Amino acid sequence: MPERPPGRRRTSPGTPANPEQRVNRAVVAAVVVLSAAMLALVGRVAALQLKPGDALRGHMSDRMAEASVPALRGELLDRRGRLLSTTRFGYRAFIDPVEFAALPPDASDEAILRVSEATGTEADALAERLFERLAENERRARMHEQGEDAPGLVRYLAVGSVLSDESASKIRSIDIPGVHLEQRPVREYVAGPHASAIVGKVGFENTGLLGAELSLDPRLRETSGTIRYVRDARGRPLWVSPEDWHPGSPGDSTRLSIDLEIQRIAAEELEHAMEECDAAGGRIIVLDPHTGEVLAMADLTRPVTGAAPFPWEDASGPRGSSREPDPRSMPRYDVVPHPAPGALPRNRCVEDVYEPGSTFKSFVWGVITSLGRARVDEVFDTEGGRWRTGYGRPVADVVKRGSCTWAEVLIYSSNIGMVKAGERLSFEELREAVTRFGFGRPTGIGLPGEASGIVTSAKGWSKYTQTSVCFGYEVAVTPVQMVRAFSAFARTGELAGTLPELRLTALDPDAPESRVTRRVLPASVATEARRIMGSVAENMERRMDHRGEPKHEWKYTMFGKSGTANIALGAPPAGFRRPTWSNGYAPDQYNSSFIAAGPTEAPRIVVLAIIDDPGPERIRARTHYGSYTAGPVVRRVMERSLAYLGAPASPHADSSGE
Known about the structure:
By secondary structure, the protein is α+β, with helices and mostly antiparallel strands. Helices cover 35% and strands 20% of the residues.
């Protein structure tokens, strides 16, 4: 019988496996069983999650929570894509009064002090608000115990506004029950205060409140998302299903028409002039006359010393109770509205009206010329600067001349010549011309609160109105109406004499370059008026040289018109009336303005500057007129802005043709 090889053992089919094999088989079997059990458990959980039974639904709501997923509001950009306003996320502290109530009574005061110190809020005010909610929760709890219907407990009390990073870190380090942080959107205005009149601001819940933020709110507004999650007994998230996550959508970023650099130039020059003229305020607009885009807009005010409130008369007292001030020491009245601390600012370029004075003569001159009632070379007797109308109203000129051609009536701003020519128009013709230029109704620029201006009704139009309107009184306009109307002289070719549609958003590159609203003058008349107003600008520039400023060889020519008008007092406050001695205007206080376009040969921009209430020294020196105060502002803004835009230099030939 052969021998078995060493180390090998004979086995039979019935012989059991060695211990190692038995262990391996047991482990495999256990893994299979446990895996099957886990799969069954996961399947059951998924089934309960997706299609829970009716018996389970009542209990699931306590374990499911839903939260909002915030999104970012759209950004506002300037026409070149530079940031004007943007949104970031910050943190605000809040207190859960239910959790805070768990503190021992002797620890609550110290906790409130720590929270107020970290958030920069007043401790007494915070304590009062918090204890009111704690008392309200106690009242509601008693109602529940008595079986009465009552709302749920108050679980939220906001503390202060959005925190700085340092303050948020302090709140995180505070170990006080019920004190938490919540994420909040923060709107930041990186363009600075000079652009605030256009950009505006957002209010509660990040919605538009003023300016472009309000008018473009539907476009800028974000859509928050939601997330549903299962939480544990302490409210902590356990897991989220993919179908329960719905991200938010950010708002659309929007390019405004303004150019930050032109805005800076305009505001800088306006501020300089306000200081130089001791003025209470100033307004400026820069417009592209071809596209109607507003390139810059600023509304500034400054405090002036010695300004007194106007002495309105008490309506409940006898007539004449307010005494007329001594003309030899006439006080300076506070006639320019200044925003109160914490109050919402106004954009006076859009919301407030003023009487334009002689700047309005450019439109009346164009209408009279277009109707053939006066020829450019026709000579008018301007009476040496003093004259009375047929109904006895005195009319005077600042520049006293014996006679003027119709062109010189515009150049030297003759009230007498303008009124004499205006008498050749019917009331209906002059009023229709005023409204045709867009005065008396909003421009539709897209900013909230836009005023329509004031044009006397056809029924109320009189011979006195006819005379006043000819030199820019008894008509109230907004600055945006003025730059749009003056664009009729600045547009070229077939568009000369037409008005653009004003816009606050940057023009789409694929849109037409020019949008015409209506024709107000024949192209030939608009072009002729432009040529003549070139002499007005040249006269203003000579005044700048004579005032001791360094003689400047301007790179660009321009044409324009100055204006000076008394400041209207407006309606008296409630309970008061206008004194009998007042004619409705602030004595010796003026809105001085200058409007121009350039370069004369191919206008790129229209600039309007208004100096509100130049100081008494300017009045005494008779340098308060628009050509002395607002004209230099327009001249410098024109020069700097055109250079920035890359406009070619003007040919230095005499553009006036005089």
